[in-house]
Structure formats: structure tokens, C-alpha cells
Specification:
Oligomer: heterodimer
Distance between the termini of chain A: 40 Å
Structural class of chain A: mainly beta
Number of strands of chain B: 11
Strand content of chain A: over 45%
Radius of gyration of chain A: 13 Å
Helix content of chain A: under 10%
Radius of gyration of chain B: 13 Å
Order of helices and strands of chain B: EEEEEEEEEEE
Shape of chain A: globular
Helix content of chain B: under 10%
Structural class of chain B: mainly beta
Number of helices of chain A: 0
Chain lengths: 110, 114
């Protein structure tokens, strides 16, 4: 099975940088994904890592270390609209199922 | 069109009612999913359809019955639900089941069971 952990809540200031960590334990790994979910809305895809290293996409970057079972999402130049839940999700190797972590609720203050 | 459309947005039903949730996508995706999300919790996978065939059932109680009439439509039939089934039900689609990473989600149907 999968065990995916993230901090429950984080706060940051507008314009700052924040790093949201995700650790996972899995019997088979086939990629790690980050989703953003605003309150009352659907999750939207942010990033995908299957190899070790950093993937950059504008203000958002995601890092993966498969040997450590660790990923982070880095958000730069924070804006108020970045206040949302950020979900780490791991794809199982055998079934290709996407399993979500507990999610991190980020609040950005002025 | 990159949308997944779900109806109704809100549904209140009694424990003896029969109702259905509907989901539609026109992106040509061949995999469709139902997830259940309780407040402040992550989405939990319920069912996966791949090429209109049920490929994954996460041991969901039979009071939830999925149906995929064609490649664009996904339904979830509800019967004899319990109050603890109250949740946000999210439909999602992806290009195919091997591309489960890039899921496109609908806005969800918020279900309240009285």
C-alpha cells in the first residue's frame, strides 16, 4: 500500500517563497504529482515528476528524490490567489492508481 | 473544450431515495474516475472506467453503482445511502488509464444524505 504524508497547514507572506514537503512509502512507484485545490473547487494539475530532480514551471517547481521517498513543491513570488490546498499524489506501479496524500492547506497573508 | 462537467452541483437526498450523479467530458479521454472527498480530506478513489469498462472498484459498497454509457459519459447511481456518505463526489478523466497523472476534474457534486 501507500503512505503519503504532508504538513496539514502552512502560512506565508505575499511575495515570499514557500516549500511544501511530501514523503511517501510505497511498494511500487510510478510517478509523483502535485495538484492545487481551492476551497469548494476541483483539484487542478500542477506538476509531474517521475525521475529524480527538479521540474520548473513558472512560479512553481517540484522536486523528487526516489531513493528518499521525498518530494517538495516550491512556490515563488507568492500571491494571495495561491491560498489553497496542495495535494501530493503518487501513482502505484502495479495498478496505475493515483493515491492522494492528506493535502497541505496554504494561507498567504498580505 | 477542456472541461469535465458534473451535474447536479448539489444534491440532498433521504436514505430511501434513488438518485444519480452525472459526468460528461468531450476531450476524447478514454479513462474516467469517481472520487469521494470528505471535508479537509484528500480525494479517495472509488471507481475507474477504462475504454468504457470498469477496471477498478475500490471495494465500494453496492449502494453506489457506476455506469459508463459511452466514452463521454459517466454516471453514479445512488440508492439507500447512509448519512456518512455525505461528501463531495468528484468525477475525473484522463487520456487513458496509463496517464492517470494528468487527471482533469469536474467541480464535483456535493451530496447530503439526510
Amino acid at each position: 500500500g501507500q503512505n503519503i504524508d504532508q504538513p496539514t497547514e502552512m502560512t506565508a507572506t505575499e511575495g515570499a517563497i514557500v516549500q511544501i514537503n511530501c514523503t511517501y512509502q510505497t511498494s511500487g512507484f510510478n510517478g509523483l504529482f502535485w495538484y492545487q485545490q481551492h476551497a469548494g473547487e476541483a483539484p487542478t494539475f500542477l506538476s509531474y515528476n517521475v525521475l529524480d530532480g527538479l521540474e520548473e514551471k513558472g512560479r512553481f517547481s517540484s522536486f523528487l528524490s526516489r531513493s528518499k521517498g521525498y518530494s517538495y513543491l516550491l512556490l515563488k513570488e507568492l500571491q494571495m490567489k495561491d491560498s489553497a490546498s496542495y495535494l501530493c499524489a503518487v501513482r502505484e506501479l502495479k495498478t496505475d492508481k493515483l493515491i492522494f496524500g492528506t493535502g497541505t492547506r496554504l494561507q498567504v497573508f498580505p | 473544450d477542456t472541461e469535465v462537467t458534473q451535474t447536479p452541483k448539489h444534491l440532498v437526498m433521504g436514505m430511501t431515495n434513488k438518485k444519480s450523479l452525472k459526468c460528461e467530458q468531450h476531450m476524447g479521454h478514454r479513462a474516467m474516475y469517481w472520487y469521494k472527498q470528505k471535508a479537509k480530506k484528500p480525494p479517495e478513489l472509488m471507481f475507474v472506467y477504462s475504454y468504457e469498462k470498469l477496471s477498478i472498484n475500490e471495494s465500494v459498497p453496492s449502494r453506489f453503482s457506476p455506469e459508463c454509457p459511452n466514452s463521454s459519459l459517466l454516471n453514479l447511481h445512488l440508492h439507500a445511502l447512509q448519512p456518512e456518505d455525505s461528501a463531495l463526489y468528484l468525477c475525473a478523466s484522463s487520456q487513458d488509464q496509463l496517464n492517470t497523472g494528468e487527471l482533469f476534474f469536474g467541480e464535483g457534486s456535493r451530496l447530503t444524505v439526510l
